């Protein structure tokens, strides 16, 4: 675990394993350690790189507004700082938005692209059900544990809530200490609302894998289907018994798919 000066901020990152580089980009309010279920498996095959996005954890949290484009430039700068010309890339949720912009703004940096539980921008997205939106709107400013627990119904599938309560509790404990300021959270949310790649998606010209949990109500699966239709040659996998955090809920299946794809 270390820090690196990238653009105007210090980025906190962690590297594990050897082999071809794999950059993993996490989502809103989350830290790089949200990929812990991937790091264990994928670092046996790849040199995995995870980091805290601008506005989260131990990475700097400027008060000035953020954009997804800016965060993609942060990711590109991190690769540069590590001496990596190009990498495999896996991004989930907001991290999937960052990954799209990384592939579009810095195409030489991305060898293969995997996108999880994400969309191409608010303007063209299939929205969450109203009950999800109503919960989401109340989260800003709440105590972190309260916000994380109230997010369980839209982060995890009904199947996981019924059959893996111990997994959910372990993830809650990991997610609580995210070290995020209110302005960091607000700036990330505003960046998401300003993001739009819909018209540019056909310009992504690297092999692309798209994954979603079939029970995702935060970013419904139709968004992944749309991405798969607009990105040339993209392949779509829909994961059973999984919601928004499909890569945690069904980690073994997801890790196998990622290893097969990136190999």
Describe what you observe in this structure.
The model has no long low-confidence stretch (mean pLDDT 98). The protein has helices at 36-42, 68-81, 94-105, 130-137, 144-150, 152-155, 158-163, 165-175, 182-193, 221-230, 246-249, 251-262, and strands at residues 2-6, 9-16, 21-25, 47-51, 87-92, 110-116, 208-213, 235-239. α3 (94-105) links the parallel β5 (87-92) and β6 (110-116). It starts with a strand and ends with a helix. The protein is α/β, with parallel strands linked by helices and 263 residues long. The chain has an eight-stranded mixed sheet, with helices on both faces. The chain has a single domain (2-262), classed as Alpha/Beta hydrolase fold, catalytic domain (Rossmann fold), CATH 3.40.50. 41% of the residues lie in helices and 18% in strands. It is globular, with a radius of gyration of 17 Å.
Care to give the gist of this entry?
With 263 residues, the protein is α/β, with parallel strands linked by helices. Helix content is 41%, strand content 18%.
